[in-house]
Write a structure and sequence with these properties.
The chain has one domain: 3-Layer(aba) Sandwich (Uracil-DNA Glycosylase, subunit E), CATH 3.40.470.10. It has eight helices and seven strands. Strand 6 and strand 7 form a beta hairpin. The chain is globular. Bound molecules: uracil and iron/sulfur cluster. The site of iron/sulfur cluster has 16 residues, from helix 4.
């Protein structure tokens, strides 16, 4: 597979992109996943949130961040004062990657090659939405957008330039759910979202 570029539509608008992405075969992940989970939100959104890849529920339902991680994200956005209709939500990789353990589908981190293969979709979303702030959720999104040297642990909550936008990286909401001290992890996550809320 040579990546998503050859599946991009001629007409670059969000609906055309979404329709084209539904039949992307730019990497092997389309084979086992249920469907492409494309980004969602208004084209005029000032905030773009970028996660890693859809999870089990997102894969079944076809929408980003509708599972447990999405509930943490929604709570954080609300408490940071970021309005839902000012947010476009997407992922670095548009198909769910998993391994089967019995009947359970266990999330697998996308490989660097898969992140690269899927990058044309993310680039096209950025070019169309032209957000003022990009909230980078976790290491995979950071790698996709800020390069392999970027360390979320060192530079979370610091606005950094990303094209015409400012990016603010934070931990992935799933990491908040898994943290030994969930309240503390959530507090750090919320503090980073508040930075993002205040840069515009
Ligand atoms: N985790 C992600 O990174 N993205 C989703 O859409 C859901 C969970
Ligand atoms: Fe295409 Fe991305 Fe899905 Fe791979 S993960 S098939 S590049 S949409």
């Amino acid at each position: 597979n040579k990546g998503a570029a050859e599946f991009l539509p001629d007409q670059l608008d969000l609906d055309s992109l979404r329709r084209a992405a539904a039949s992307c075969q730019g990497c092997g992940l389309y084979r086992n996943a249920t469907q492409t989970v494309f980004g969602e939100g208004p084209q005029r959104a000032r905030f773009m949130l970028v996660g890693e890849e859809p999870g089990d529920q997102e894969d079944r339902r076809g929408h980003p961040f509708v599972g447990p991680a999405g509930r943490i994200l929604d709570k954080g956005l609300e408490e940071a004062g970021i309005e839902r209709d000012d947010v476009y939500v997407t992922n670095a990789v548009k198909h769910f990657s998993f391994v089967l353990r019995g009947k359970r589908r266990i999330h697998q981190k996308p490989t660097a090659a898969e992140v690269d293969a899927c990058h044309p979709w993310l680039d096209a979303e950025l070019a169309l939405v032209r957000p003022e702030v990009v909230v980078v959720l976790g290491a995979t999104a950071a790698r996709a957008l800020l390069g392999r040297e970027f360390r979320v642990t060192h530079h979370r909550g610091e606005p950094v330039p990303l094209g015409d936008a400012l990016a603010v990286a934070t931990v992935h909401p799933s990491a908040v759910l898994r943290a030994p001290d969930r309240d503390q992890a959530y507090a750090g996550f919320l503090a980073d979202l508040k930075v993002a809320a205040q840069v515009v």
